[in-house]
Amino acid sequence: MTDPTQDPRFLQDPYPTLAAMRSRCPVQFMPTESGGRPSYLVTGYAEARKALCDPRLSKDTAAFFAGKESRRRLHPAVAHTMLATDPPRHTRLRKLVTKAFTAGAVAQLRPFIARVTEELLDRWPVGERFDFVAALAVPLPVIVICQLLGVPQEDRPDVQRWSRELFAAGRPDVIDAASHSMADYMTGLVAAKRLHPGDSLLDRLISARDGAERLSEEELVSLAVLLLVAGHETTTNFLGNAALALLQRPAEVDRLRGNPDDVPAVLDELLRFDSPVSTATFRFATEAVALGGVDIPPGAPVLVALGAANRDPLRFPSPDLLDLDRDAAGHLSFGHGIHRCVGAPLAKAEAEIALRAVLTRFPGIRLAVPSDRLEWRRTRLVRGLAGLPVTVWSVGRA
Hints:
Elements: H1 8-12, H2 15-24, E1 27-30, E2 39-42, H3 45-52, E3 57-58, H4 61-65, H5 76-79, H6 89-98, H7 103-121, E4 130-131, H8 132-137, H9 139-149, H10 156-165, H11 172-195, H12 201-210, H13 217-247, H14 250-258, H15 263-273, E5 283-285, E6 289-291, E7 294-296, E8 301-304, H16 306-309, H17 344-361, E9 366-367, E10 389-391
Parallel strand pairs: 2-8
Antiparallel strand pairs: 1-2, 3-5, 4-10, 5-8, 6-7, 9-10
């Protein structure tokens, strides 16, 4: 049995393949062709939701790979982030950053997000083809998370490049090198902030490290790297995927343009329809687990296909239809359980502000190429466009 997710057409539109797999069984054994350990892929919604909060499915990658030889040389601060831990360590680390992403904290960031959005849109060339991803979906989340963490403006292009390289599927040497560059940079930034403290989130984490909180230096650097990377990569894909879904449906664009206050209410459906994170991060069974009628043996990796779960017709009728009136709040694009994305409120605020601004300022925005000619990023963890060529032929401020 070959892995159908390796078909080049899968990148363009993975959902028919995932639907076929789910219809056979919502949990499937996935062989490996490289001699690695076979895994199990979860494609059903109920099974995915259960897997995401099952304590028997550990995220402790250090424990999984202990004693196993590997040619990889990921920096420990990248390999062992908060995402790769279980309670009680995970609980302790998550508590340190949760306050920065509450609804109230994000509300304070909204004026800054709106200002940056308008500045980026001011640069859009009217009547010329340009890349929506490069012109908005990438820079906005990068600027916002760098501002939140206190990353100097002159360092942001490097940070953005290293982050992109961390997702270079099929290029382990590039990923490993980027992990060291990012961790080394963050180590230096922490040292600089100790000499010249500020009021950023990173400064507050440093205070926790140097105060009574039980935070090691490696954990501090690891948290900073995780927040920096996760804080913009997924939002970039969210913006690109949402824009594409809407631009393929002019009637929906016209509807939202006429009722921009509806934008917040449709974000969950846009997230459900084309999840920016296609597969949840690594888990493995610490003991035998029965899931979806399948017995998963101890030690087996379990991959939860969030995008597939969001298209399960047993949970979302007519799942391949983008229905902006659907109540999609139960989607799994941000995960579920104790590992649910801590930055979800910030991601939704950025998407709301950005999409509302684009729809009201640029009523003439159109795709510049057929959808089947778009290039998707070659990674199975996240789903996002490498570029989204568009044109705008009319500009008007709301």
